[in-house]
Design goal:
Aminopeptidase, 28% helix
Amino acid sequence: MNNNMFEVEAISDKTRPFINGQIAESWAGPVIVSKGKLHDTREHSGFAAFDENTVAGYILYRIENNECEITVLESLRENQGVGRALINAVIGAAKSAGRRRVWLITTNDNTHAIRFYQKFGFSLKAVHIDAIDESRKLKPQIPLTGFDGIPIKHEFEFEITDL
């Protein structure tokens, strides 16, 4: 699948070790928390975007019931269309699987992502006030402050339902 100048393909055994390393570094993974549930990202499907033979970004998702949750999205090349290409790949996979909703969680400090998701077409579904206090009980490595020194406290849930 070719989006913009990036080749997007399903994560393979070849790319999984690199992605696992990135998740460990960027997310204190492989375990993440969303809506009070622990998830092992090594078990999630996903896509990687390549520029030549270099990973430019990756996305992981899980399908449960009639929904598809994006659990991790990381662009290693900001503002070049990597995130858009990767989300489009997940939306395509969700459609092919007959799913009606793609959703994700981000934290209140991640203002860059909040802007990006809204510009992409995601709608704010819910704000889970003080949810990160509960998440820290499951994953104590979640820092107290995030981007720009903003205290990490709340989860913002975004969704697209017009697949």
